[in-house]
């Protein structure tokens, strides 16, 4: 057997199934749009992402799972046209509101899911998928990114596979199950004949700036789908005895995977 005999898309899917993670609905993301509205723009994460992008020769950008416009809006003033695609209408509304506030008139949105038909989604010079690639069919998703790019693709995918610190999962009595991390994507791309560049972006955990316990519990419940009353009680007990550093949690690490369309 060689590595060529391994179907990494199928392995990714098997890992995702084992994680027990279910697909979040668009409505669930709608409810998050307000709280993501402001802090997404010009964050240390978006600065680090944009710093690693090469926009030379590019006039257009397509941002998949764009959310409030985290990446597309950060570079919109350097391009003729940016397009945000997301299955959450509330996220797209926030992106347009952010664009208006910044005086940007070259921003278009498309209400669409990864899994939908993309026939009418425009090809763009640059295609981006930032923190939005934990999808069920990773092979199809990567093929779609590649097909829509004229010059370059940039995506970030989680390193290690834990959106919530395993310490917290265990504290509330749940199994700490990882989702498939970036290494699957590298191998799927390899099987597609694509040899990407790899870099990393490290940020504070999403829990690090929680204002108080209620905010902390809200963020944990969001990441875990929901918390039942017993889990809430255990989380409260853990929070009360944790040090400030423990509450802050392990930093979040993203793999930045990028490639040139012509393979250079
Ligand atoms: C973690 S947010 C990332 C937002 C933004 N790209 C960023 O980095 O800040 C994930 C985004 O992907 C969108 N999303 C999740 N699943 C999706 C799907 N199946 N199709 C389209 N968008 C999806 C969500 O609505 C949300 O806006």
What is the topology?
Elements lengths: L7 H12 L6 H11 L7 H8 L8 E5 L7 H4 L5 E6 L2 H13 L5 E5 L12 E7 L7 H11 E10 L7 H6 L10 H10 L5 E7 L9 H12 L4 H13 L2 H5 L3 E9 L4
Parallel strand pairs: 1-2, 1-4, 2-3, 4-5
Antiparallel strand pairs: 5-7, 6-7
The protein binds S-adenosylmethionine.
S-adenosylmethionine binds next to loops.
- Please provide the ordered H/E string of secondary-structure elements: HHHEHEHEEHEHHEHHHE
End-to-end distance: 30 Å
Question: How does the helix and strand content classify structurally?
Answer: alpha/beta
Strand tally:
7
The largest pleated sheet is described as: 7 strands, mixed
User: Residue ranges: pLDDT <50 for 5 or more in a row?
Assistant: none
Bound molecules: S-adenosylmethionine
- What's the total helix number? 11
Can you walk through the features of this model?
With 264 residues, this protein is an alpha/beta fold. The protein is built from eleven helices and seven strands. The protein has a seven-stranded mixed sheet with strand order 3-2-1-4-5-7-6, with helices on both faces. Helix 1 runs antiparallel to helix 8 and helix 2 runs parallel beside helix 5. The protein starts with 7 loop residues before the first helix and ends with a strand. 34% of the residues are buried. The site of S-adenosylmethionine has 17 residues, from loops.
């Amino acid at each position: 057997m060689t590595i060529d005999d391994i179907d990494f898309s199928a392995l990714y899917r098997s890992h995702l199934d084992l994680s027990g993670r279910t697909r979040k609905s668009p409505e669930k993301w709608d409810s998050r749009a307000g709280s993501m509205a402001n802090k997404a723009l010009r964050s240390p994460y978006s600065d680090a992402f944009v710093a690693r992008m090469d926009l030379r020769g590019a006039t257009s950008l397509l941002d998949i799972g764009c959310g409030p416009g985290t990446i597309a809006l950060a570079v919109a003033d350097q391009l003729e046209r940016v397009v945000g695609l997301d299955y959450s209408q509330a996220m797209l509304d926030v992106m347009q509101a952010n664009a208006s506030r910044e005086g940007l008139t070259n921003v278009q949105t498309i209400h669409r899911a990864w899994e939908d038909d993309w026939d009418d989604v425009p090809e763009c010079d640059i295609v981006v998928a930032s923190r939005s690639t934990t999808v069920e069919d990773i092979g199809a998703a990567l093929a779609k990114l590649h097909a829509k790019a004229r010059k370059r693709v940039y995506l970030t995918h989680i390193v290690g596979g834990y959106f919530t610190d395993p310490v917290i999962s265990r504290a509330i009595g749940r199994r700490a199950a990882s989702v498939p991390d970036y290494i699957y994507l590298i191998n799927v791309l390899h099987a597609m004949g694509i040899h990407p560049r790899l870099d990393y972006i490290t940020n504070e955990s999403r829990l690090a700036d929680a204002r108080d316990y209620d905010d902390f519990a809200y963020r944990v419940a969001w990441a875990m789908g929901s918390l039942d009353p017993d889990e809430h009680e255990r989380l409260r007990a853990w929070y009360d005895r944790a040090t400030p550093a423990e509450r802050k949690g392990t930093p979040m690490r993203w793999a930045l995977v990028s490639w040139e369309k012509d393979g250079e």
